[in-house]
Amino acid sequence: MDRTLLDGLFKPKSIAVIGASAKPGKIGYTVVKNLLQDKFEGSIYPINPDGGEIQGLKCYPSILDVPGPVDAAAITIPAKIVAQALEECGKKGVKGLIVITSGFSEIGRNDLEEEIVQIAHKHKMCILGPNIVGLLSNSGKMNASFAPYLPLPGKGSLVSQSGALLIAIDAATYLRRIGFDKLISIGNMSDVDIADTIEWLNDDENTACITLYIEGLKDGRRFMEVSRKARKPILALKAGVSAHGAAAAASHTGSLAGAAKVYGAAFQQSGIVEVSDLDNLFDRSLALSLQPPMKGDNMLIITNGGGVGVLATDAAEKYGIPLKFAPSDVQVEMKTHMPDFGSAKNPVDLTGMAGCDWYHTTTKFSYAHPWVDGLVLLYCETSLTDPVDIAKSIEQGIKDSGVEGKPIIVSFIGGEKSLNGIRYLVEHGIPAYTAPDIAINAMAALREYARIKEILAEPAEALNGVDRQAAINTINQVRADGRNTLTEIEAKEVFAAYGLPITPTSLARTEEDALRIAREFGFPVVMKIVSPDILHKSDAGGVKVNIRSEEGVKEAYAAILKNAKAYKADAKIHGIAVQEMAPFGTEVILGSINDGTFGPTMMFGLGGIFVEVLKDVTFRVAPVSISQAKRMIGEIRGAPILSGVRGEKPRDRRALAETVSRYSMMIIDLANEISESDANPVLVYEEGRGIKVVDARIILKKK
Ligand code: ACO
């Protein structure tokens, strides 16, 4: 999106309010009142056909009557007359439109919405909304909204798809003393969407961290691309995490993919820190807007209370940054700032006797120490010290350390005086919270941000040995046959074209064929029905395993055909697949869906009961690099089964990771063709012995 339009929208020098009203209680009245109340420094032009004066400002019958230029226009007139007003805005040279009005696509009036977007584009304007509360900016002293006041000032900016939530957050910034620079209500996203906003905020000098409240994205891929490029931390709260699309899913993967899992994967792959609720959103955005990322795993905690130290230790483990003992030189130094009964390990317990001096010197020393990647200071309010003085000592300790670029987080546990200490720290750029676990969670966000950025920086490995045309030929044949579901043999052909290690399988149309193929492969073999009308082969009695003789092949051939006919008399039968019987290995499942928001998306998990009952699976938006695939393998609960438990040798995770990566490449490459697919089971052998895809399923997109 054109930057000058977004500048006009987010940093206007002049604003018209179309539908400005002299009647208190109306939205057109409130927007003018808010702009005046929060002292917008540019020009405010109320527009109303009645003209006259509104709240002491000259009111113009039309925007075309305004003498000077107008950068932005807030629209507060009913939906059916917005289009006409936008034509006039266009003629006036307005750049950004803040369309507060409801009654567009959110109630099915897509026609009205398309019309206003067309008008905006024709006149080179951009639209925020419609159906929004408006736009609030502390640095611009602009409250172009009907939210009651500008938020408490802060260094983060919030983009919200819910107007009501934005109003709630606005008020909560004062209660929680956690501010924002901009609050942007994004509404129906008819034109300016979340990705455009991220791009603009990324260059906004008043925004250090971008916080998103997301209900649903339109273009997930672009959102990921823009987020990945952002130089500032982004954190996101995703609402509506119930299973989506699961009901219509035809494959295993489809039924396991829910919005939460796919969005979670997309966030991780885009460098976005996810938050689970509103408390988390406030706490983590404060930390990310004030502090740098935590670049290593060494967190040092200093406390004046053993109990809160233990709570922080528990939280550290819970949030993925478990504590290590401090190195001996740190311990020796710490010992000099505590009584004999203190503890210098980690947490460093200065004891309740700790005063400002000890907080200052230990902060100064540990913040400068190269072992420390992140410093957490805890303080329980005592009558020996004033929390604000402790806050000042901590702040001074950081300054005196001569070091910059490491995160520090504080928690003061106590009453009103502690709150004053917290306020002092936040105002001086140090995130401070009321409980130790909240402080650790905030530090964990800084660690998480550093980790996901490191992962994003990893180069993707090139994979060769792909024959796309072979895959397309198979798919074309299936389509020519009037089908959308590939048989196992056809699906394996497509898999093989992308270098996936399938078990050799051939189609037998007669008993003689079956005998010949079995002799070629060598016994034992597996035989399976091949029918586009029988998806669940085992349920139909269409699978025989461990066939060890020619006699066995004949018996299986007859039995499978008989069972299939009994299962579905009119099933079209292509023949019987004869395949090598793969030796026993650890069962895993790979699969894909074509997610409505993010497109081809990959699933991995342990097979059998793990997938059926425990749903122990993980997702990534494709493509997935080999190193990312290794992470997928490591993050499922059953990961130790693959790394070798109880004396078992580790499984071939390298081969598995390559297969996951190849699979993801296949689903991206064939995104226009494949709707869903599964490789299930895939057998994983001992390290160095590779893996085998034993069964395959592909469902094509309808064309
Ligand atoms: N140019 C300028 N002003 C005009 C024009 C025009 N072309 N045509 C009419 N007006 C004036 C009207 O005369 C009226 O002025 P008045 O108060 O002096 O009589 C004023 O504009 C407003 O028009 P009304 O017809 O009175 O409309 P009303 O104020 O009742 O409603 C509104 C307009 C607020 C935009 C309404 O249609 C609407 O969409 N409300 C919902 C807004 C909303 O909730 N947004 C989503 C927020 S997200 C959340 O859920 C919190």
Task: Pick out its properties.
703 residues, alpha/beta, seven-stranded mixed sheet, 24 helices, flat, binds acetyl coenzyme *A
Descriptive account of the structure:
With 703 residues, this protein is α/β, with parallel strands linked by helices. Helix content is 39%, strand content 20%. It is built from 24 helices and 29 strands. Strands 9-8-11-10-12-13-14 form a seven-stranded mixed beta sheet, with helices on both faces. Strands 24, 25, 26, 27, 28 and 29 form a six-stranded antiparallel beta sheet that branches. The longest helix has 22 residues, at 436-457. Mean pLDDT is 93; it is low at 244-250. Bound molecules: acetyl coenzyme *A (ACO). Acetyl coenzyme *A binds at residues 18-19, 21-23, 26-28, 47-50, 76-78, 81, 85, 100-103, 131-133, 163-164.
